[in-house]
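Suppose you are handed a protein chain with no further information: no name, no annotation, nothing but its sequence. What can you learn? This example shows the usual starting point.
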Amino acid sequence: MLRFVAILLALVATTRPVLAETLMAARTIRSKSILSAADLVVEDSRIPGALTNPEDAIGMEARVVLYAGRPIRPEDIGPPAIIERNQIITLVYLRGTLRISAEARSLGRAGVGDRLRVMNLASRNTVTGVVNADGTVTVGN
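A reasonable first move is to predict its three-dimensional structure. Written in structure tokens, the prediction is:
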């Protein structure tokens, strides 16, 4: 038994640690571009905070310029924008069963699930809400 443990320890000491894979940009990608499989490359290296699975990035939008050979981090990408800056959208306030709708102007770009600042056109007040799949922004609840 002691000999088995000694052999096992010798094997562990001589083996190289397994490196994790890191997702990197295959070429320089401009912000607002939708990522495809051709834009990505997987490298055998460990970079903390970088994405490892290409499926997490394919179909997402680059929020910043992604440089070739640099790791892609979760904050560098997001869902594709469905609302553009200065676009007129419907602002929905929800509180229990109460639902109030108003026209608003978006103050930035955003995709589904993103938080977005908008200006209510009637009151000129700015509020922050969550973008829904139908292009409305919900505040409250």
